[in-house]
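Exercise: predict the fold of this chain.
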Amino acid sequence: MTDDELFFKEMRESFLEDATELLEQTEQSYLELERDAENPEVLNRIFRCVHTIKGTAAAVNFESLAKFSHKLENLLVKLKNGEMAPGQEIVGLLLDCNDSLKGYIETLKTNNEATVDTTDLERRIEDALDVRLEAEGVRQTAEIEVMVDHYNMLLENDRTEEITKVDVVSEDIEEQKIEQVGKVEKVDSVEKIEKVEKSDEFVRLPLKKIDSLLDYLGEQVILQTALEFARKDINANSKLVDKTIVQLSKITYDLQQTAIALRMFSLKSLFNKAQRIVRDVTVSLGREVNFVKVGEATELDKTIIDELSGAVTHLVRNSVDHGIESNEERERVGKPTVGTVKLHAFHQGGFFYLEISDDGRGLDTEKIREKAIKNGVIGENQDLSESEIHDLIFQSGFTTKEKATEISGRGVGMDVVKDTVDKLRGSIFVESKFGEGTTFTVKLPLTLAIFNGMIVRVGGEKFVFPNSEVKEICHVNLSDSRQINASETVIKVKDEVMPLVGLNRVFKLHKKKMDESNGKGLFLIVNRNNKDYAMQIDEIIGQQKIVLKKLGQENKNLSGVAGGTILGDGKVALILDIHNIIEQFTA
């Protein structure tokens, strides 16, 4: 097997594993949709999953799967736009489609060349979309007319024996149909009852990383033994205790770094996937593109790599489809016929950066603005900077394409990118010059497992701010705040007016009484989507290495909270989800 063949095989295997997880999510979302049909976020979540499966399936040449997903997506568009209601029958159809996709994926895992007959489901989708109803009615009417003509002819010739035979054949056909339907229903029932268990995930690690981990663990055991000895007479061994604790702190830090390194992997698989996307889209569109990879060996937490994969797929696909012009257009404006798309990864200042750039047509700010006004995203007289107009492309459902294709144009790609980056506690920036090209820069923490955090007090409760989220700490005169309306307040910080986010209001805590003589409040300035927000706190307690712990099942969807951690005093503090807080505060 050649390197290219091996790479393609790995891409397919990765897609099949990801698709299995996505389809598990959509099944729950379909059930949630049946219970809460008025919640638009449920449909958005379903749409993104199906859209991702469709796009990636096409990228790895599972054409039949991609085409079926595209037809399912057409139905979801109608639901998303409010042109159809997600009643019980429609949800049943969606669940059947989901079951079929899950079965299709499992079949492809054992045989990449397998195909699954989805004709019946496609017909049901078309019927639901009212595409085939008229045609079906015409066809059935014609069949009935032919049957009647045949009967009349037999009666005229007094061939009653053949009439009986025709009746018998008709009954046999109906019985066969009933039998087939029964088989299908039985198979569907079995598939719905049986549980697609997720297999354990395995990774390859250099042996030296494991050896390093064991070395530090060995040193930690030695230091623990020393402390066990010293505790017998702490007063007499106070110097030994102090010395051992200092050494233990150093070893613990080294152990943390080594453990984190076990999760760090190069971006080779991500870059290879992007390269394949570029290749397939250029072939589909008949364009010529040179794909440049820089920083392929850069390492990143595998969890982040996996989450980032879909976002990079959208960004790279859009760079080719929306960004790079046709050969004729490039020649006309004096550009080289071959366009360039560049993927650049690097570390800087304790953060990971990924740049996706192209030398295409760039973003047309006027066109984006016109479409935003048309869609009601902004007001006709609303004054926006060029950067703010560029950020409009991250709005859900926003697209400047007039016609959707299997590549793009649904208006969900950039929306997915933004949601993914926000989920990873990162940010994304757009730089574009019309006629010259566009660069998207994604900024992320290196790992989500352990990070530097700031412990603060708000209304008598302790919370943790990730340091990466805090742009500035400042005291501001409370007299510089203004009430805009019943739910919105702004405050002036160093000649800049920004929204004031009261954490006490978000978490329904008692507000600390300010010193009237001082008249100042303590604020943390955070930035989200190139906009600053002032978050009021009561006190900064200190800083420490934060180990992220997931919340229990009953609290996993707690609004404004990313997780929890255990502080030095043994008490639990909640880690704040800054993006979610700003979202609900400004909603």
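Check your answer against the key: DSSP finds 17 helices and 18 strands in the chain.
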